[in-house]
Amino acid sequence: MVDPPLPRIVTSPPGPATRDLARRLRRVESRNVTYLSDHFPVFWSRARGAVVDDADGNRYLDLTGAFGVALAGHAHPQITAAIREQAGILTHGMGDVHPPVRKVEFLERLAAILPWGERSRITLANSGSEAVEIALKTTLLATGRPGVVAFRGAYHGLTLGSLAATGRDDFREPFRRRLYSGVRFVPFPTTAVEADESLAALDLALAAREPGQGAGDVSSGGAGGVPGGATHGPPGAVILEPIQGRAGVRVPPPGFLAEVARRTRAAGALLVFDEIFSGLGRTGRLFALEHDGVVPDLICVGKALGGGLPLSACAGPVSVMDAWPESPGEALHTSTFLGHPLACTAGIAFLDVLEGEELTAYAAREGAAFREALERELPRDSIREIRGRGFFIGIDLGRPGAGVRGTEEALRRGLIVLPAGAHGEVLELSPPLVLSALQREVALERVVESIRIAGGGDP
Ligand SMILES: Cc1ncc(COP(=O)(O)O)c(C=O)c1O
Prior knowledge:
This protein is an alpha/beta fold. It folds into 2 domains: 80-356, Aspartate Aminotransferase, domain 2, CATH 3.40.640; 359-426 and 448-459, Aspartate Aminotransferase, domain 1 (Alpha-Beta Complex), CATH 3.90.1150.10. The protein has helices at 16-28, 65-68, 77-87, 101-113, 128-143, 160-163, 169-172, 192-206, 256-266, 318-321, 341-356, 359-377, 402-412, 437-454, and strands at residues 44-48, 51-54, 59-62, 120-125, 148-151, 183-186, 237-240, 270-274, 298-301, 312-317, 385-389, 392-396, 415-416, 418-420, 426-429. Strands 4-10-9-8-7-5-6 form a 7-stranded mixed sheet, with helices on both faces. β1 (44-48) and β2 form a beta hairpin. It is globular. The chain binds pyridoxal-5'-phosphate (PLP). Pyridoxal-5'-phosphate binds next to α5. Residues 67, 127-129, 132, 155-157, 241, 245-246, 274, 276-277, 302 line the site of pyridoxal-5'-phosphate.
């Protein structure tokens, strides 16, 4: 490589080209979408491996994997070559009518790594939110019960169906009157004591009776648990992230997921694991569910799945997924780009790289070492807690907004990181699983420096 794969700031970001792009963007994009300030963001022009170049020629280390997508690194040569070749052969097919060959090949490849193996049945989609929509539709078809139990702080997406199960009031509030009101929220625990409280709340939510039966009804409410008053009978689904990602990389205590599974099944509901962020090696296991040895009834995957192209899936065993009727020629759930040949090709190449380069083992080994190094290097009074599994790390700085300030400080030092947590109190790291030893060393040094400047610590 001619250029060093290390951060290099030539113009204090955001530089002049970036500021010009921000002005142009402001004129054409809805103002809700991109946060634009005097300090943030930078505009990406190029990325390879774990480094990203901006429009001003600055180079950054990407410690986010671009929302966890670039798990195998940006523009991985094997994935890029596969996309190039496929682009010259077939770029679009007719997903649910005349399917591209690549769709079949990708589905076979994905089924082979799912917990149900050959018994897996999969519906493909284009975004994580859509995979969640499919999972929620499946649980209704399979159980006949519309009600859902979800967890506070959960992030399942922002489409109306997935937003109904997303446990963050800031996203929900403007649309509350249009959200399905049969979702009951229970707390997500990170300690054994919290787990007991959470399981008690789960029991209550699962025990809701049929509407009109009186006692036992559990009111649905906002993500903060404000009673909404509507009753929807016993829920048909319990949905959760095995590790809450955007809530600040929150890991439940040992045994919690198994207890959730046991109680969910005893109540006749289906368990959905949203592994859109945590899946595909990031946590040091292929799926985060493996840490607790729990197999859910449905699993949602996305983000890294398409090797950088939009691709997601909802999967389960045939016994659950056959709740969907045989297509009579009009699929009950599909979309124009379903089984897109380019995305499926990239997905196959990504799974080849994931296995061939043993990225899951890298996440386990290097992620743990990075967490230990952070524990060593970060002054105790600057953080509340360092959490995570594999290379999925949340540095809880304890103060609202400290993660946001840390993100801006990191940018100035040539690092791309993201804030997380309900109050922007966490710095979230989910880098490409290809950082070299030198890149990890530089990343560590500059993360520590950014946190020192941003100022964390218990309020
Ligand atoms: C756990 C989880 N589920 C669902 C989603 C939504 O995915 P998308 O943004 O692709 O719709 C996300 C996105 O961050 C996520 O982290």
